[in-house]
Each structure stands twice: as structure tokens, then as C-alpha cells.
Specification:
With 202 residues, the protein is mainly beta. It has one helix and 13 strands, in the order E-H-E-E-E-E-E-E-E-E-E-E-E-E.
């Protein structure tokens, strides 16, 4: 059995913004260091950037503000990748510069040859509808246009809380499924008494 639901469109847009941001980033507080060519490319980054802070604009509007304490590039490694060991935080804005979504993770890695993102530990998202999403790890495969995870997930919506293990989604997060749902509880059940039959549903 699977649990399907709609409305979480923020994540892929934010992830795409990351690709753009860290390819074209230009920040006044940013500090970059290049590493000597003699260093081991598996353990020493080819570039180290600290205090990353940038905004992404589209059609004349500021859409995202992205911050990351540390960005390490390992482009000469056998498996080229970017690493954000101290995490990243993203705020999304509407046309009136009002915050309408956030995304954060404790660590992030981008495997540049595979075009694969991996986000680890305390991956949290809030979309424009106020839905909150928490998981330990997610992957976004840009080649397959797919977002997926085998981890435990916790979703807080206006009408219910959904929990389970594993999920798959299209790239826009407009429709996805929880692979092994373990709970689906109406949120008002924590405020008022309900008959046990009221806690069923998907």
C-alpha cells in the first residue's frame, strides 16, 4: 500500500536554484581558497569557499536567499563532487519579497558527473501551504528527474500527519508516494477526542 498526496512543489525549485547559485555565486563576504595541485584530490578540495550567501533572481524578482557556512569542491577526485559539510539554508520569496517557503539540511553533497544531489541529517522543508516535511536523507537525480529516499519521513499538513519509510516523487513534487506508510492521523485528533475510526484514511 502507498499513500499519495500533492502540493509540495518547493523542493525541486530550490535544488535547481542551488545548481545555479553555486555555479554563478558572487558574494561580498565570500572567501575562496584554491588548493595546491600536489595535494591528494581525494582528501583535499580543489576549492574552499566560506560564508556563502547569495540571492537568486528571476524575471526581476528575488526568488531565493541561500546560505552555507562552507563549500568544498573536489573536482579532481575519482568521483567529482561538491560538499557542504556544515549544511545549508534556503529561503524562498514571492513577488512581494514575502517568505513563502524554507529548506534546510545538516549536510549536502552534489556528485557533479552523475548530477545527483544527496541531502543528509535533519532535512526539513516548509512549503507555501505550511506543510512541513522531515526526513534523514533524500536524493535528487537530475538525469532521471526523480526525487527519492529509503529513510523515515514525517509530514505535517493542515489536515493530517503522515509518517512512513521511503518515498518517490516526480521532479516537481506535485505527486509522490510514501512506500511503507506507518501512520496517517488527523491533526485535530491531538486537540479533540476522536473515535478510533476517525484516524484512518490517506
Amino acid at each position: 500500500n502507498t499513500t499519495r498526496f500533492n502540493g509540495m512543489k518547493l523542493l525541486p525549485a530550490l535544488l535547481m536554484a542551488l545548481v545555479v547559485a553555486f555555479c554563478t555565486i558572487a558574494c561580498s563576504d565570500e572567501k575562496r581558497e584554491t588548493i595546491a595541485l600536489s595535494a591528494d584530490p581525494e582528501t583535499f578540495p580543489t576549492m574552499r569557499t566560506t560564508n556563502v550567501s547569495t540571492t537568486i533572481s528571476d524575471s526581476g524578482y528575488t526568488r531565493y536567499h541561500i546560505t552555507a557556512p562552507l563549500w568544498l569542491m573536489y573536482e579532481e577526485a575519482k568521483e567529482p563532487h561538491w560538499n557542504f559539510p556544515d549544511g545549508m539554508f534556503i529561503v524562498k520569496f514571492d513577488n512581494y519579497m514575502k517568505e513563502d517557503g524554507t529548506f534546510t539540511a545538516d549536510t549536502a553533497t552534489f556528485f557533479s558527473n552523475k548530477k545527483l544531489w544527496r541531502f543528509d541529517r535533519n532535512v526539513r522543508m516548509r512549503n507555501i501551504n505550511g506543510d512541513r516535511f522531515l526526513t534523514h536523507q533524500i536524493f535528487w537525480d537530475q538525469n532521471l528527474r526523480k526525487i527519492y529516499s529509503d529513510s523515515f519521513i514525517h509530514i505535517e499538513r493542515s489536515d493530517r500527519i503522515i509518517e512512513g519509510y521511503g518515498f518517490e516523487s516526480n521532479e516537481n513534487m506535485t505527486s509522490y508516494k510514501v512506500m511503507r506508510p506507518t501512520a496517517s492521523l488527523p491533526t485535530d485528533g491531538f486537540r479533540t477526542e476522536h473515535h478510533p475510526s476517525d484516524t484512518t484514511g490517506g
